[in-house]
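User: Peptidase M15, Nocardioides aromaticivorans:
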Amino acid sequence: MRRTRRSWPATLVAALLLSLLPAGLVVTATAPAHADECYTWGRTLREGTSGSDVTQLQIRVAGWAGYDRGFAVDGQYGPATTTAVRNFQAAYGLTADGIAGSQTFSRIYALQDADCTPVHFAWSEVDDVCFGGFPTPVSGTTVAQVKANLIQVMWRAEALRHRLGDNPLRVTSAYRSAECNRRVGGATNSNHLYGRAIDLVPGSSATTMCGIALAARYVAFRELLGPGYPDHNDHIHLGIQSTKFWRAPSCGI
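Assistant: Predicted structure for Peptidase M15:
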């Protein structure tokens, strides 16, 4: 569910997304053009291709990785990306062949705003819950890294929303500065500090807390905390991390 949108310069957003490309990765095609203040793909992508355009695709389809799967945004179009693209295509009524071409890209364009965020989530929903904006992150982390992480989080939340029948979800917390995290009693190593986590509650009576938790098992969040876990009875906490930690006992998780 959106609040008033804060716009970020398209060049900054593009730079943040491209910063996810691993160092040393060889780009095998001309850099893609930018249109509509966001991103445009210039070639069909399939298993075996690599480059910054694959990275951009992965950011947007990671939430379709499948049940109990993580997802690496690494610029390499491997089997996991093929599966995610195929699931994305099936979810939106496209030919589910796992190849990202014009129909797949057109659907993604329809789902993204000019600042590259998904249409149902905004920067103003994921910035610092205490102070607004993006106060100085914890030592060793930059604002650019925080925003690049949040873009990934928002696109996975968009996939979750669609899986829930496109019923609205309300963000109660995402990025937290160190001071904000201290004020709200967050864990000292919380993924919120790095922009890698989001807390959600139903945005309408059509969705339940456990409904969110159960659907979240399919959208590549390896951290999932909810009802029945201490201090998580009133929201679903979802985080991007390498190791799986799911706890929502009241929902059977």
